[in-house]
Write a sequence for this structure.
C-alpha cells in the first residue's frame, strides 16, 4: 500500500512517529492507500483545551511540516491577553505551545478560517482539523478532507500524506437527504445537525444566501451533528454530481433563546472583512453600552485596520488569535449573546455559560441599547 517514498518515511527519525500514526489510521479506516495533501490545519492549540498533558506530547514532536500548515485559535489574543483577563501562567504556557508549532514550521495563523489564508482549490486533498473549516472546504470549495483530530492533522502535516478514505473518495460525497431551509442559516445548521447527525444534507434555500451565512451554517452543522459536508442547490460546486435524495425535510431557522447578556460575542467562526464592515454599518456611530467582543484572525485584522479602529472607537473590542469558546476569558460572564449556532452549542457545554441567540443585527442592537 505504501510507496517507496512513504516506506522511507517510516525509517527516517524525523518522520517515523508521524508516519506510524498516518499508517495506523489508514488501517483502522481500511484505506487502500495514502494521498498527498496540499495543506494541513491543526486544532488543539489553546492551552485551556490541551492542558499540560497536550503540551508534554507536543514537546516530543520532531521534524518539520512538509506542506503549508495553519493553526487554530489559541486561548488568548497574543498581544491583548491582559486586557482579556488572562493570567501570567496561562500566557507563558500558551506561548510555549505556539513556539513549538513555530519550530515545526507551522504558520502562526491562529484562526478557524484557514480557507481565507490557504485558499485551497477544487479537488485538492487536505488534512484539516477544525470541524467548521472542514465543512467549508468540502462543501463550498469542493476540496476534500475528513474531520481530522489535532494529532492526525499534525501527523499529516509532517508526512504530507493522509489516508485515502471517507470524503477523499468521490462516491462518499453524495447527499443523503434534502433539506428545505428558511430563516437564519446558523439556526438551520444547528437544528439540521441535531436532526440529521452524520448525514450529508442537500439544501434548498428560499432566497439568495451570502458566503458568510454559509460559513455560519458550516460551523453549526459540524457542532451539533458531526456533519462534514453539505450541498446547496445552484451554489456549491458538486451539487449536480449525484442523484438528488428522495427523502425531504423542512427546517425553519428560528429559535427562542434568551437571557440578560453582559457580553455580546461575534465571530464564530472568525469574522471576514465583510462581516467587520457590516458590524460597523449596523453600529451606525452609536456607542456600545454592554461589552461587545468581536473575534477575527490576525490576517483579516491586518487588512481591516481602519474598520477595526472605527469599531473600537465606539467602545467594542476586536480581538484576534482566539475566540469566545476556546478562551477562558468569557467565563466571567453569566450570559453571553451570540449569532452563531456553534457558540450556542459550545458555550454552555464547554464554559457553563448561559447563551442568548440573535442574528447579527439583533446582537448589535443589544450591545447599543
Ligand atoms: Fe472558530 Fe472558536 Fe467558533 S475556533 S468556529 S470561533 S468556537
Amino acid at each position: 500500500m505504501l510507496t517507496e517514498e512513504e516506506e522511507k518515511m517510516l525509517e527516517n527519525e524525523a518522520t517515523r512517529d508521524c508516519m506510524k500514526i498516518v499508517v495506523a489510521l489508514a488501517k483502522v479506516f481500511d484505506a487502500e492507500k495514502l494521498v498527498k495533501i496540499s495543506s494541513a490545519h491543526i486544532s488543539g492549540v489553546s492551552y485551556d483545551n490541551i492542558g499540560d498533558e497536550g503540551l508534554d506530547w507536543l514537546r516530543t514532536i520532531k521534524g518539520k511540516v512538509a506542506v503549508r500548515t495553519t493553526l487554530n485559535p489559541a486561548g488568548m489574543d497574543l498581544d491583548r491577553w491582559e486586557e482579556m483577563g488572562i493570567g501570567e501562567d496561562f500566557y507563558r504556557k500558551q506561548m510555549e505551545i505556539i513556539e513549538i508549532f513555530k519550530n515545526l514550521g507551522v504558520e502562526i495563523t491562529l484562526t478557524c478560517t484557514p480557507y481565507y489564508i490557504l485558499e485551497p482549490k477544487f479537488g485538492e486533498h487536505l488534512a484539516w482539523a477544525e470541524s467548521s473549516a472542514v465543512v467549508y472546504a468540502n462543501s463550498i470549495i469542493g476540496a476534500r478532507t475528513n474531520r481530522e483530530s489535532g494529532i492526525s492533522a499534525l501527523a499529516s502535516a509532517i508526512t504530507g500524506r493522509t489516508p485515502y478514505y471517507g470524503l477523499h473518495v468521490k462516491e462518499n460525497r453524495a447527499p443523503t437527504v434534502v433539506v428545505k431551509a428558511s430563516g437564519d442559516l446558523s439556526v438551520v445548521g444547528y437544528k439540521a445537525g441535531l436532526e440529521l447527525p452524520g448525514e450529508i444534507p442537500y439544501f434548498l434555500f428560499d432566497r439568495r444566501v451570502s458566503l458568510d451565512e454559509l460559513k455560519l451554517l458550516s460551523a453549526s452543522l459540524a457542532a451539533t451533528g458531526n456533519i462534514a459536508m453539505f450541498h446547496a442547490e445552484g451554489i456549491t460546486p458538486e451539487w449536480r454530481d449525484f442523484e438528488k435524495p428522495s427523502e425531504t425535510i423542512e427546517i425553519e431557522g428560528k429559535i427562542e433563546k434568551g437571557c440578560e447578556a453582559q457580553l455580546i460575542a461575534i465571530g464564530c467562526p472568525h469574522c471576514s472583512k465583510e462581516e467587520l464592515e457590516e458590524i460597523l454599518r449596523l453600529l451606525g456611530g452609536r456607542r456600545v453600552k454592554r461589552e461587545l467582543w468581536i473575534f477575527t484572525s490576525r490576517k483579516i485584522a491586518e487588512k481591516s485596520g481602519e474598520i477595526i479602529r472605527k469599531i473600537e472607537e465606539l467602545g467594542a473590542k476586536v480581538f484576534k488569535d482566539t475566540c469566545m469558546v476556546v478562551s477562558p476569558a468569557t467565563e466571567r460572564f453569566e450570559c453571553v449573546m451570540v449569532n452563531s449556532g456553534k457558540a450556542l452549542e459550545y458555550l454552555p457545554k464547554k464554559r457553563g455559560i448561559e447563551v442568548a441567540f440573535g442574528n447579527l443585527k439583533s446582537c448589535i442592537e443589544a450591545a447599543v441599547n
